[in-house]
From TrEMBL:
Matching Pfam families: DUF7122 (PF23437)
Highest classification ranks of the organism: Archaea, Methanobacteriati, Methanobacteriota, Stenosarchaea group, Halobacteria
Residue ranges occupied by any DUF7122 domain in the UniProt entry: 2-74
Region span, Disordered: 1-24
Protein name: DUF7122 domain-containing protein
Length: 172
């Protein structure tokens, strides 16, 4: 089944069930989260994955029939059909607490800069690429977004409309 930008179509379970060679499978999505971030596949046991358009993967807790002709279904989850798959801010904030790999913990000042959309030079001993960015909030480490780490720099991937200047006193 080809990608239709007007409806959601469930991802095939495996490559053997795939009709469109460029399309991600449920198995590949689970493998990506497990290999890149250490999130166990069973974390997504109650969720289905859907594509709308080319490479825009959505996650839904439940099992509606496929295809579904609606404007939104669950949450935007992952961008595929590019060289490096990119998790969305929403996916990291929802499932990032399960990550055990490629997680960077930011100090308060670093987290404030990250939330405002600023790139910053940071030391990181892990893999380059997309990271789950976390911060200690009220004594608990919480995922706050997706960062891209390359060449000694953490690049904020917080979408422009979601950025916040937390240093600005007028926000209080």
């Amino acid at each position: 089944m080809s990608n239709d930008s007007t409806q959601f179509t469930r991802l095939p379970e495996t490559a053997d069930e795939r009709e469109d060679e460029g399309r991600a499978t449920r198995e590949e999505v689970l493998d990506f989260w497990a290999e890149r971030f250490g999130v166990p596949p069973e974390t997504f046991a109650d969720h289905t994955f859907w594509e709308r358009g080319a490479g825009k993967i959505w996650c839904y807790r439940g099992d509606p029939p496929s295809p579904v002709d609606v404007e939104g279904l669950g949450m935007a989850f992952l961008r595929t059909r590019q060289e490096h798959w990119k998790p969305t801010l929403e996916a990291v904030q929802r499932f990032g607490e399960h990550a055990t790999k490629n997680v960077i913990l930011l100090s308060e000042g670093e987290a404030t800069a990250f939330a405002a959309g600023h790139d910053q030079e940071l030391d990181w001993e892990g893999d380059w690429g997309y990271l789950v960015v976390t911060h200690d909030l009220a004594g608990r480490v919480e995922p706050i977004g997706v960062g891209l780490y390359v060449y000694g720099e953490l690049r904020s991937q917080v979408p422009k409309g979601r950025r916040r200047d937390l240093d600005d006193d007028s926000n209080n």
